[in-house]
Amino acid sequence: MRLENLRSGRRTVLIGSGVGLIGLVVAACSTTKKPSAASSTVEATSATTASPIAPAAPKVIAKTAQVPVGSGVIIDDIVLTQPTQGVFNGLSAICTHQGCKLDKVTDGTIDCPCHGSKFNLDGTVANGPAKLPLPTKSISVQGDSIVLN
């Protein structure tokens, strides 16, 4: 009989400890301080009176006069072309064949120095080994400036 009394005593202690821990957790959670109405008002007021962040000015990458009609220029990692008067394209200056940087625009094509790929002024493949066109870059003309969008 003593062994059974000892076992049930242990069970009682363990169950009692578990209930006690649950009580502590509940008490800890319920003592979290809630903001007063005054602090909520201050937070709401400061959130509505904060000045909005101004959008960044578009980045000017070239002047329209820099890009010859029927040709183009390479500026950093962008190829700007003007196939016809007033029509401008922004293209990646990285060859789609093996990632070489394109180095020149001559005779109506954008040329890769590594393996001889050539691209038309609209970015389509004129001569392989490249099979994919050049990715476009989002540009726009603002006055006499070409900007990256």
UniProtKB/TrEMBL annotation:
Residues 58-148 form the Rieske domain. Keywords: 2Fe-2S, Disulfide bond, Iron, Iron-sulfur, Metal-binding. The keyword Disulfide bond applies. Its cofactor is [2Fe-2S] cluster. Coiled coil: none annotated. Transmembrane segments: none annotated. The keyword Iron-sulfur applies. PANTHER family: CYTOCHROME B-C1 COMPLEX SUBUNIT RIESKE, MITOCHONDRIAL. This is Cytochrome bc1 complex Rieske iron-sulfur subunit. It comes from Mycolicibacterium sphagni. The lineage of its organism: Bacteria, Bacillati, Actinomycetota, Actinomycetes, Mycobacteriales.
